């Protein structure tokens, strides 16, 4: 699959990197993901695929469930605990760096990247900036990924509380986010060297 990145300078050394949205991909993104745990177990046991493909299927299943739960929190009536959890989640998401959101937005099926930029920019300079983001992101997201994974066992201790385990789900979400950003950074490094 081919991705299109739009790059333009904002002010000085600050640039904006954005992915153009293909509306046909948003509906088909979770088309192959099973909807129930029973279907997931059936797919994993009967498909005969390697461990990496089964792990990716499990990650897609979990992320699909988390997306549906987030949409459920978003639709909660005002003043309920679900609404307050959604507000807390929005405040936490506001602290996530835009570069991570950009990296995470790129689909895992991408094999080629088309970069669109103004003619006033040098093509080599744009490519170098993208490579810099990928190199820096690889180091940052790998460290944060390992840190988030190491915090997951600690946050499971909060399951004894009668409230939703918000720290666990936040750390789980951050682990997934850093893992996806790390995958895209390594893909950009490979594309930038070709």
Automatic annotation (TrEMBL):
<dbReference type="InterPro" id="IPR018786">
    <property type="entry name" value="Mit_KHE1"/>
</dbReference>
<dbReference type="GO" id="GO:0005743">
    <property type="term" value="C:mitochondrial inner membrane"/>
</dbReference>
<keyword id="KW-0472">Membrane</keyword>
<feature type="transmembrane region" description="Helical">
    <location>
        <begin position="151"/>
        <end position="173"/>
    </location>
</feature>
<keyword id="KW-1133">Transmembrane helix</keyword>
<dbReference type="GO" id="GO:0006813">
    <property type="term" value="P:potassium ion transport"/>
</dbReference>
<dbReference type="Pfam" id="PF10173">
    <property type="entry name" value="Mit_KHE1"/>
</dbReference>
<keyword id="KW-0812">Transmembrane</keyword>
<dbReference type="GO" id="GO:1902600">
    <property type="term" value="P:proton transmembrane transport"/>
</dbReference>
<protein>
    <submittedName>
        <fullName>Uncharacterized protein</fullName>
    </submittedName>
</protein>
């Amino acid at each position: 699959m081919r991705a299109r990145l739009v790059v333009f300078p904002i002010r000085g050394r600050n640039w904006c990197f954005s992915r153009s949205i293909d509306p046909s991909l948003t509906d088909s993104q979770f088309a192959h993901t099973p909807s129930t745990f029973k279907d997931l177990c059936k797919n994993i046991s009967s498909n005969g695929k390697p461990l990496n493909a089964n792990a990716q299927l499990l990650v897609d299943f979990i992320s699909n469930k988390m997306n549906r739960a987030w949409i459920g929190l978003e639709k909660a009536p005002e003043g309920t605990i679900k609404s307050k959890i959604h507000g807390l989640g929005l405040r936490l998401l506001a602290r996530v760096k835009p570069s991570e959101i950009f990296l995470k937005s790129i689909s895992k099926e991408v094999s080629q990247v088309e970069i669109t930029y103004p003619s006033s920019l040098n093509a080599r300079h744009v490519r170098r900036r993208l490579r810099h983001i990928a190199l820096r992101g690889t180091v940052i997201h790998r460290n944060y990924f390992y840190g988030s994974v190491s915090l997951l066992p600690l946050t499971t201790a909060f399951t004894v509380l009668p409230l939703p385990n918000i720290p666990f789900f936040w750390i789980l979400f951050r682990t997934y986010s850093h893992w996806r950003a790390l995958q895209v950074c390594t893909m950009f490094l490979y594309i930038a060297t070709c």
